[in-house]
């Protein structure tokens, strides 16, 4: 598959590596780029690219900014699959866990290198490195909370679930938006607003994905996770009953029907809308050309309308 310049830049950021490692990296990046081809409004690439246009980040620096986002996504995707036990020898070879963890580390280091290349000067590069570290810690906390989403894990509140999605998915997109402000030489007062924009969109996309999994009509493990729809069910029924329906493939349809009757879908839409409202408010005050603001608002509407804009 012929790669876009940003994906070529992402592969170049990894540098010369052994052939087997190169093959694995190609597979993961091909998988990510296939998502972009199917979903041109994929926030991971669309939003940093638009913000680069808004703030005059051009050429190799623009590709480096988008490539950094691709690489950080790839790292998180690989690490998440490893932690969830979703690795297969057919894709990874033997031993799959060790190979995936090593490649995930390589993607992380390469992402930092790409982001540093997007900085216009050494002073900005220092800020980029610091923000990268802080976002990485937020992502790690979100992933830790994700470990406890299972119905057999410790009790989890809705606020803890929202902390999870804001960390797991919101922190990465928040970083991409904040770095566009840094590397585009925007005033420091705008950095936090840009981060807020990305965090809100990332969290909304994650909840949208969780909702889509529950109502997909297929047996899936998300019905055994404390995602927002399931937390809604737990507020109505004893946990043991929800757990029994979630784990029994013959009763998962029963659980979805219960969620429908109780209005869980509408409640989840309200939560998604609260994040999108924040994103719209951020876009209204950020300085940028009207046409770029309109394109970013169109991405917000894609998420609102329920189209699968997965992170």
Low-confidence stretches: 307-311
Radius of gyration: 20 Å
Number of strands: 0
CA-based shape: globular
CATH architecture of the largest domain: Orthogonal Bundle
Q: Which percent range fits the helix content?
A: over 70%
- Biggest β-sheet strands, sense, barrel: none
Mean pLDDT: 89
First-to-last CA distance: 21 Å
SSE succession: HHHHHHHHHHHHHH
**H/I helix tally:** 14
Question: According to CATH, what is the class of the largest domain?
Answer: Mainly Alpha
CATH topology of the largest domain: Farnesyl Diphosphate Synthase
Explain what you see:
The chain is 77% helix and 0% strand. By secondary structure, the chain is an all-alpha fold. The model is unreliable at 307-311 (pLDDT under 50). It has two domains: 1-118, no CATH class; 121-311, Farnesyl Diphosphate Synthase (Orthogonal Bundle).
């Amino acid at each position: 598959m012929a790669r876009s310049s940003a994906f070529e830049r992402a592969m170049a950021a990894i540098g010369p590596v052994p052939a087997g490692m190169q093959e694995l990296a190609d597979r993961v990046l091909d998988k990510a780029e296939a998502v972009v081809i199917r979903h041109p409004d994929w926030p991971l690439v669309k939003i940093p690219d638009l913000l680069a246009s808004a703030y005059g980040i051009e050429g190799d620096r623009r590709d480096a900014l988008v490539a950094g986002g691709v690489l950080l996504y790839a790292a998180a995707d690989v690490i998440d699959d490893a932690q969830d036990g979703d690795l297969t020898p057919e894709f990874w070879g033997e031993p799959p866990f060790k190979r995936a963890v090593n490649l995930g580390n390589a993607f992380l280091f390469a992402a930092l290198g790409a982001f540093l290349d997007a900085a216009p000067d050494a002073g900005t590069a220092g800020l980029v490195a610091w923000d990268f570290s802080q976002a990485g810690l937020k992502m790690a906390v979100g992933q830790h909370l994700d470990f406890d989403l299972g119905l057999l894990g410790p009790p989890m509140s809705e606020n803890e679930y929202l902390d999870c999605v804001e960390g797991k998915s919101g922190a990465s997109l928040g970083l991409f938006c904040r770095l566009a402000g840094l590397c585009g030489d925007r005033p420091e007062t705008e950095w936090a607003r840009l981060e807020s924009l990305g965090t809100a969109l990332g969290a909304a996309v994650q909840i949208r994905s969780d909702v889509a999994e529950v109502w997909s009509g297929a047996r899936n493990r998300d019905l055994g996770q404390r995602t927002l729809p399931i937390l809604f069910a737990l507020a109505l029924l004893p946990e043991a009953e929800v757990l029994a329906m979630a784990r029994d493939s013959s009763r998962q349809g029963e659980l979805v029907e219960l969620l429908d009757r109780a209005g869980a879908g509408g409640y989840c839409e309200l939560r998604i809308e609260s994040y999108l409202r924040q994103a719209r408010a951020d876009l209204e005050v950020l300085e940028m050309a009207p046409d770029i603001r309109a394109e970013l608002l169109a991405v917000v509407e894609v998420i609102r309308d329920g189209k699968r804009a997965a992170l």
